[in-house]
Amino acid sequence: MLYFQLVIMAGTVLLAYYFECTDTFQVHIQGFFCQDGDLMKPYPGTEEESFITPLVLYCVLAATPTAIIFIGEISMYFIKSTRESLIAQEKTILTGECCYLNPLLRRIIRFTGVFAFGLFATDIFVNAGQVVTGHLTPYFLTVCKPNYTSADCQAHHQFINNGNICTGDLEVIEKARRSFPSKHAALSIYSALYATMYITSTIKTKSSRLAKPVLCLGTLCTAFLTGL
């Protein structure tokens, strides 16, 4: 059973890699109208030039739930009443004589593993949605720099579906065709929901009646603001 789960995890990571780092899956070429004002907004610059770079955002999204899991599991393990119930519960789970792990380590690996799988799966679904829809960003025509002369664009209402009309930077144009669904919003919401579900279902001490709702609400609000 463990090997089967490892195969699924490896396949998920590999598929996410192909979506992120290769051009195996070509984005759908969506057409547009000549001189469409909704697609001529100013280009905001590359993601690396933004206030929070994608690398920093993804590190925070991965590290925050992981840190919550570590702190929560270690705290509960060192609380006597909680530790005794956890040890009794974990002993009912068979992992094989050669693969027995400490209950604390086993729970940390389990929760972080499920979180990592969901994070990669969310990334796959978001990339698949962007590839299938090819939804254009509001600044698409600004970076596309279409050659209207070769397209014989005589009127604003004329629809163009020729992907070769663009004369701008190909890499920037490729990203401008992948605006929906938003990867930042999807990954932020997933991380917040997982952290919230973990806090709600796992931490059950009486002293956390007010702390849990405040922590969960703060996590969800932060994810919501990140996705805007």
Question: Please, could you describe this protein's structure?
Answer:
It is a single chain. The chain is mainly alpha-helical and 228 residues long. The chain has a domain at 65-133 and 182-228. 61% of the residues lie in helices and 2% in strands. The protein is built from 9 helices and 2 strands, in the order H-E-H-H-H-H-H-E-H-H-H. It has helices at residues 2-21, 54-78, 80-90, 103-133, 140-144, 148-151, 170-176, 183-202, 211-227; strands at residues 32-33, 159-160. Strands 1-2 form a two-stranded antiparallel ribbon. Helix 8 packs antiparallel against helix 9 (211-227). It is elongated and about 75 Å long. The model has no long low-confidence stretch (mean pLDDT 82).
List keywords for this structure.
membrane, 228 residues, cell projection, cell membrane, mainly alpha, PAP2/HPO, two-stranded antiparallel ribbon, 2% strand, 2 strands
- Arrangement of strands in the largest sheet: 1-2
Shape: elongated
What is the strand content?
A: under 5%
Distance between the termini: 40 Å
Q: Total number of helical segments?
A: 9
Largest sheet, strands/sense/barrel: 2 strands, antiparallel
List low-pLDDT spans: none
| Tally of DSSP β-strands | 2
Rg estimate, integer Å:
23 Å
**What kind of assembly state do the chains in view correspond to?**
single chain
| Helix content percent band | 55-70%
Pfam families: PAP2
Domain Phosphatidic acid phosphatase type 2/haloperoxidase: 115-227
GO cellular component, one term: neuron projection
Transmembrane segments: 55-79
